[in-house]
Structure formats: structure tokens, C-alpha cells
Amino acid sequence: MQEKLYFYYTNDLHSNFDQWPRVASYLKQETAKKDAVNASYWLIDAGDHVDRVNPIAEAYMGKANVALMNALDYDVVTIGNNEGITLPHEDLFHLYDDAGFHVVCANLESRTPTDPSWLQPTLQVKSIQGVKVGFIGLTAPFNAFYELLDWHVSSPYQVLDSYIRGLSEKTDVIVLLSHLGISEDQEIARRFPEIDVIIGGHTHHLLRTGEHVNNTVITAAGKHCYHVGEVILTWDHEKKKLVNKEAYATEISHLAKDLQTEQSLQQLNYRAAEIMGEVVVHTEIPIEVGWFKETKIMQELTHTLKHWAETDVAMLNAGLLLDEFPAGAITYSDIHRICPHPINPCIVELKGDELLEVVRGSLAKSFTELKLKGFGFRGEVLGRMVFSGLTVETAFHEDGEEHVENVLFHDEPLDPDNVYSVATADTFTFGRLLPEIAKSETKQYMLPEFLRDILADTLRRTFSS
């Protein structure tokens, strides 16, 4: 006799709630079919369901995301870096207190005396006909951020060494919920043949029919839930082993929205607006925002960051602010709408010659017009870099390209060998947007504050009427 086991999953929603009613529609349809034939299935999320770019996620600090998964009867989830490092410690500690599902993350632990009651490294369940399924979860070890929030994330490989053998002895099937990224998932599949399925995320990769590495099928459904994933395992009860593994990612954007979920989101939006409706400041005139010029608000925001971080220099890109502020009452909702990015301030140390290259690179047209997606940035283009603590003199070539002629610190040229402390957005410590910042050996991330917290302080201090 053979039994099919079904696993439906989402990953990297990033609070894209416009798509969630379609997710609900798909999952309700598929699970109703399985209920009709008495088949075993589980609903799973592989992390980054929460993203504070959305006002609902911001107002409820992720708990509305949990409620939405509860409404669809999710069974097991793991956490992503957006749950892990964009929420203050207490908010993550209590994020899943009311969850109707299990949260597995074997490499996360609190640096306070106790772990959250919801946190468990593994989970063991049984199918309708008795197949024992073991789940284990892992999240990306961004300890430069986690430890500032009183958490620690252990090496995924060390954790797997500790758990996989024991889990293998107790279960028939092992499913890893991985928020590590495709390269790590592939390496894990090579090292741990006991793992049957890796349901992945983090790097937003889309595997429409899965990828087989040794004994393991790896799967992931892209980002923002334009696809929902499905894994189908076939267990042979006579042979006592899996005889087939299938994985699919189904595009769902054509589906009608689930009305009940749509109504729940409307109510959440209304309540979020109330929660975030507190007035921060009153202004007599609108506050201008421009992505390719130095406006007063960006200059003051950069000054505030420099003083707050107590650094020699501060620099921020004008594309951080998405729209002008209206005259009158400015609320937290306005600030969130205009600066929605889950980006933290960061301090790096750069030698004078490195800082000069950063200034040059950040004012190049290829940088200012870059339509960045990722690294916490949720805007349209990076925009012009604005500086505090530096005087930057530029000129234009005949072709219209701007170039840097002089960079002065306290009216003197930068000393190539002197080390300067620079406050900026943590965005630039990743990738190769500004290589000198990314390669800096000294990085001090400032958590839990987001740049919009610095913006709120700037508005109170400088723009109050």
C-alpha cells in the first residue's frame, strides 16, 4: 500500500498582503480536495512572512501576520531574518504567543535566561496512516544583528550535526524548513542525505519543479507569494520507504481573492491606520522631497544621524524618502509611508582614501539612478547621496556627468591615512553598492532603531511649527 503526503508552503511573503487573499483561495481549494479523500497534508511557511514595510505589519509588529496564518490553519513555520532582526527583542519573544501552529528553528536561542515558549528545534507528527514526519527549522546566522537584540543564531551545520541523527532514528521522513538561501540548501543536501525535503527561502529563488541533490528534493516559491509551493511524497508501507518525491511551485496571480481574507485585511488596515495615527509634528508648509537633489529634510536628517551616532561624518541617499510631507499634521503613518524601509543606521570606519572613493562612487549617475531591490531598500531609486560633516565640491563634464573635484573635512582635504567614523544606512554594508563600506572591518549596527525613527526625531526637532 502506498500513501501520498502533501506539503503546501509559502516563503518570503514580505507582508505583500495584496497577494495574500489569493494564497488563501489556493490553499482553501487544495486542502478541501485533500480533506475530501482523507489525505495527509501540512501547511508550512519558510520565513520572512513579516516585513515592516507594510503598515499592518508595522502597527501590529508582526502579530497580524500570525493571525492571518492562524486563519488558514497553518501547521508549522520557521522564522526568517525579517522576523528575527527587524523586531525588538520583546516583540519577537512574544510574536508567536497566540500562534495556532508550531514554530521550529533549531539554531535560534535567546541570550536572556529563557527562550520563548513557542520556540522548538524540531517537530514530529504522523500522517493519517502512521508515517512519522520530522520537521526541523533553520534561519540565516546574521549574528552581527541578532546579538545586538539579545539573540544568538548557531551555525546551521553544527545544529544539523546535533539533531539529524536523532531525528532520523525517530521518524520516517525529514523535512527541513530553511531560511538560509539556495547555496546553503544545496550544500546541506550534499552533506546530509538523511534529509528528504528542503523547503527553502531567503534568496527568493523560484524552483518550479524542484531540484534534486543526492537524496534530497529542494524547493522554493520565489518571493511575495506570486507562487505557492507543493511537495508530494509517496510512502510505500510495505517497503517502508519513500518511493517518489515531487515538488512544484504554482503561479496563483490569476486566482480570485478569498473574500473572507480580503475582509480581514480591510479591518486590519483600518485598525493599523488608527494605531499609527498619532501626530508627530505640525508643519505650516509641505516639506519638499527630491531624489536627485539636496533638500532641507534630507540635509537635516543626515545632520541628525551624525549627531545621534556621534560620528565624524554621516551620509544618506535621498531615495530613502519616497514622497513629500504634507502641510499640517504629520503622523507616524505618514512617516512610515514615506520612509518604509526596514533599514538600521550603521557606523563604519574608513580611511581617508576609502572615504574619497565612497563619495565619488555615491555621486556617480550609475549609483544615483540605480533601481535597487533588496538589502532593506523598498524605494524606487537610490538617489543622490547627502553628506554631513563633509564639504563636497563637484563640477560637470561636457557630457553632463557630475564628478567630484574636492572633498573637505573641517575645511581641509581628507587625510588618506586618517580613519574617519561614518554613519550611514546598513544597506551599504551588503553587496557591492559601495565596496569600501562593505569591506570595512569595523561595522557597528545600531538596533533596534530604523532610519525612520531618526526621521521622526528630525521632524520634531527641526520642522515643528
Describe the structure concisely.
With 465 residues, this protein is an alpha/beta fold. 30% of the residues lie in helices and 28% in strands.
Explain this structure to me?
It contains 15 helices and 25 strands. It folds into two domains: 2-271, Purple Acid Phosphatase, chain A, domain 2, CATH 3.60.21.10; 279-462, 5'-Nucleotidase, C-terminal domain (5'-nucleotidase,  domain 2). With 465 residues, the chain is an alpha/beta fold. Helix 10 crosses helix 15. The strands form six sheets. Strands 6-4-3-2-1-14-15 form a seven-stranded mixed β-sheet, covered by helices on one side. It has helices spanning 20-36, 55-60, 63-71, 81-85, 89-93, 143-146, 156-170, 182-191, 259-275, 296-309, 332-338, 352-362, 365-368, 435-438, 451-462; strands at 2-10, 40-45, 76-77, 102-104, 108-110, 119-120, 122-126, 132-139, 151-153, 173-179, 197-199, 211-213, 216-219, 227-236, 241-251, 279-283, 313-317, 328-331, 345-351, 385-388, 391-396, 402-409, 412-413, 419-425, 443-445.
